[in-house]
Every structure is written in structure tokens, then in C-alpha cells.
Amino acid sequence: MIVKRLLSYLIPNSLLARTALVIVFALIASQLASVLLFRYYSQLPRFQLVAIGYISHLKTIRAALDTIPPAQHREFIIKLREERGIRVIPPQRIAEEPLEPAPSTPAIRAARERLREQFGPEADIFVFQRPLRAGKAIAAQAQPGEDGKMPAAPPPAFITKIPVGSTYYWVLFPQSRIIEQDFSMAWIGWGVFGGILALAGALFLVSRVNRPLHALADAAKEIGMGKHPPPVTEMGPEEVKSVAVAFNQMRDNLTRQERERATFLAGVSHDVRTPLARLRLGLEMLPADPATRADLERDIEDINGVIDQFMDFARDESREPQGPVDLNLLVQSAAERVQRAEPELHVTLDLATQATFRMRPLAMKRLISNLLDNARKHAGCEVAVSTAREGDAIVLSVRDRGPGIPPEDVERLKQPFTRMDAARSGQSGAGLGLAIVDRIAKSHGAAFDLLPREGGGTEARVRFPLAGNTPA
Asked: What is the pTM (predicted TM-score) of this model?
């Protein structure tokens, strides 16, 4: 669990970052493998060949100094320096220079092993402790050139002592002949360049995937808000394209089902209204008991209310044009209609706040009416409606003192044809009021919540964000 949580923090969330991370990791692993293989199959064998050449030069120098007369040693040493860049110095000229063993690099180790195999375990490769002082040891061998000028200071060299007869000589071998040029910066540069190419490739690939995915996400959000977005463009890789095809098919199916359901509800509602009107007319003509007549009239009104809910649910709010509407005026108008029957309705409007937005006025009237009717059915006259500015939003609130709604049932009650039997038994309605409110709120970019009210009851809140909904 701890490792999983740690990985969740270390691994980025975006597709671009993850793709770049995978490509860069693969590139680094490939570079490391290439370096190791190069070292094992190419670099180490070359070190061995260089060491063999180095020892071969030392053996040749020792054989020559053993063979030629001592009087010709100076001529041989000068010629060797001029033609091969190798300096041979008598022991007395280098004794004053402090020496130290050469650093143990792979190339030096290979040469040192060959050297000791040929000249004994005491043989070693040295360097001057302070290279600038090496000129003192070899200054005696420096001869003026044809132009009369002294040659430049010698390059850094490795120093080896070789026995020659009863004496010995110091051989200064150029370091460049043993140690190859350092290509580490080239490897690093190539790695950085490869990383840049990998990131560019990742950016290109992910952009090809992200573009259709973003279109899918935007279309899904619009469908979730009750809108009808156009079909998404079927582009991108085959996998993403197949998702777009499935999404378009789902969109078409949802649109067709919603159209068929709306047509069915509208047809049923229309067909029921005619016999309902005949029932109302017949009831007026029957010599029934006044109490019985009143009960029948209430039943007819309940049926008519259910039909009105069906008609409201069947309507497509997205087809209604938007315009600048004052939310406070809509709430005030709906509240006055209710107050004619129930004067106890409490209304509190934040008139100091600009609440004019682009919205669908008829849909918003249905939203407010459904909230008020729902509160009146389940809380009697103890209903309060208000508008207020809260941070970056305008909040419409309808509060009642009914039995309340458990938090676990809130989302269920927003679904069509859903009622809360325990608290709403005996009440009329088809269970469409809150579903209509939720759909209209989403189509306006608002959030609809059902919250417990302090002291008992329910508070229905519709939060209209100010961001992206500039007051008109």
C-alpha cells in the first residue's frame, strides 16, 4: 500500500508526461546499454591493443639501446623524439623530478599489467607530480629549430623506467598514445539531443491522441448537462477513433430514446386531457355530496398536475433561445403566484446583487415553480425562498420544514419517476419535479443540491456560477 501510494505521487497524471517519462526512460536505458556494450566489445579490446603497442615500443627501444654503441645513443634518442614523439632521458636528468604512479584508468591498468609481465612486478607507469616542472628534466634535450627558436613545451607524458645493460633509462611516452580522447561529453550531448527528440515525439503523438479525447470529454460534459452536442469528429489513432464511433452511436441512441420518450409522454398527456375534461364537466353536473365532490375535484387536479409534469419533462429546453433575464424578477413573480394561495410564503431577495444573466426564461420559471411546489407539498406553508450572492455565484434557495431527505437518497431522487416513499407517501406527483429541476440547472451550468436544513427540513439550492456567465 505504501509503495502504491508513493508511486501515485511520483508518476505524473497527464498522458503527455507519462508518455515522455516512458520514452525518456527507454532512451536512458538504451544509452546505458549501448555504453556498456561499446565498452565491453570495443573499448576494452582497444585498450589491450594499445597496451601491446606500448610494450612493443618499450621493448624495441631497449633492444636498440642495447645494440647500438653508447656513442650513438644521443643521435638515436633525438631521432626517436623527432619521428615518434617519444623521449628517452638518462636517469640523472629526471631524478630531481618528483614522480607519482599514473592514475588507475582502464587504459593504464591494461598497459601496467602488460608492463609488469614484460619487465617484472616492480615496473610501473609514472607521471610528474607537477607537469609544468617536466620541462626542467627534458630541457637538456631540447634543440633549437632551423629558425633558431626553442621548441614548445612537451605534451603530458607517461614515464616508465626500462633497464638497458648495467644502467636504465626513463621513457616519456605521450599520454595521447595510450589514453584515447574522452567522448563522455559527446555521449552526454547525444543523450540530451535524443531526450529532446523523444520529448518532441511524445508531444506530437500525445497531441494526436489528446485532441480527439478532449473533444470527447467536452461532448460528454454537454450530454451530462442535458445538451445535445454535435457528433464528435472521428479522427486520431484507430483505438481513439473506435471510441469516437462508439460515443457517436451512444449519442444517437440517447437522442432517439429521449425523443421517443418525449413523444410518448406528450401523446399520453394529450390523450388523457380530453377524458379528464369530460370528467370535470360530468362532475359539475352530478348531484353528489359536497365533500365527495371536493375529493373528486382534488383527484382530478392531481391527475392534471401529473400531466403537467409529463409535459414539462417532455419539453426540450435546449431549443428555447437564451436572453438576459433577471433571476430576482422570476423568483418574485413565482412567489407572488404562490402567495395568493399561501400568504405565509417567506421571500428574501438580494436586490443589491446584479442577477441578470443570459438564461432560458420559460425553463427557469419551470425550475422555480417545481421547487416551490415540491416544498409546499411536503412542508405546508413553512416555506422560504431567497436569492443571495455567495463568493463567485448567485444562489437560489428554497427551504422547507418537511421530514427531510437522507443524504444517501439525494442523488436517487434526482432521477425521473423517483419518489421517497417513507417521507412522501400519500403525496401526488409522478416523481419528475426534481428531475426537471436538475436537468434545467445543468443546462444552465448550475449545480442543484438537496441539503438538510438546520432545525429540520430540506434546503434546495441552485448555484449559478458567475464565471463564464457574465451578467447581462
From this structure: 0.48
